[in-house]
């Protein structure tokens, strides 16, 4: 027996005080309402409605059942309203794993707006470029940046944006060492290497026609932390490669300058990864939708 349906039918029957009236309010036939009442009484093992009189009335058990039904249905409807409201105003904890670039260098571009829109989400953010096991480590979702297809992890993956990887340097560095005009000019420059790259000792530059050129990197600085690479670039230590999203603010403020802007080092995809479930947590959905919107707006003004 569908207990929820049984309660709704019985409450409608008491309100209408007739089978036909209850059926009309519920969009059911007279016989369907009568059959549902019979099934409910059989399941409970008691009579709920007096059938010995022509006037509609409840038995003592029927009165008690009606009071409980009204209370339970009110609680269920209130809970449904609360859940529906949370879709518009998500509330509660959200634990997210993000790459260092997103959680540090890009943070000021998105966090204030996210907190303003969702003040009741309690965001806990872990910054790491390592893949994490969402389920065993207790994360609700993860953001990841990858220039290659993601490995099959059994998770749902939503692409948030695509960003070219570009070369940048500080104005101070370029003032001292000059601006490279061709990829071959990089041989005489300090090139800052990122140990997390697929090939830290080489840049593969592609022009707008798709022609590529491989450049062996010369320089005395290598790091596995994108934040250290960024700090070294700002300090004038050399030329480095970042996704366009990571250096967008620095380029806009003039603290970094594009080098060889007619070339790209490939494209990276930004993904949101989350457990495969029938219904996505409203806070997870809010974060994914917000970040997708953030990156779309950033690209539109680039």
From TrEMBL:
What PANTHER family does UniProt report for this protein, alphabetically?
HTH-TYPE TRANSCRIPTIONAL ACTIVATOR TTDR-RELATED, HTH-TYPE TRANSCRIPTIONAL REGULATOR
Q: Please state what the protein is called.
A: LysR family transcriptional regulator
Q: Which source organism? A: Pandoraea captiosa
Origin, by domain of life?
Bacteria
A Pfam cross-reference name: HTH_1
Its taxonomic placement starts with:
Bacteria, Pseudomonadati, Pseudomonadota, Betaproteobacteria, Burkholderiales
Q: Which family does it belong to?
A: Belongs to the LysR transcriptional regulatory family.
GO MF terms, alphabetically ordered: DNA binding; DNA-binding transcription factor activity
Which CDD domains does the record cross-reference, listed alphabetically? Answer: PBP2_CrgA_like
Q: Where does the HTH lysR-type domain lie?
A: 1-59
**DNA-binding keyword on record:** yes
The alphabetized UniProt keywords are: DNA-binding, Transcription, Transcription regulation
Q: Which SUPFAM superfamilies match?
A: Periplasmic binding protein-like II, Winged helix' DNA-binding domain
Q: Which Gene3D superfamilies match?
A: 3.40.190.290, Winged helix-like DNA-binding domain superfamily/Winged helix DNA-binding domain
Signal peptide residue numbers: none
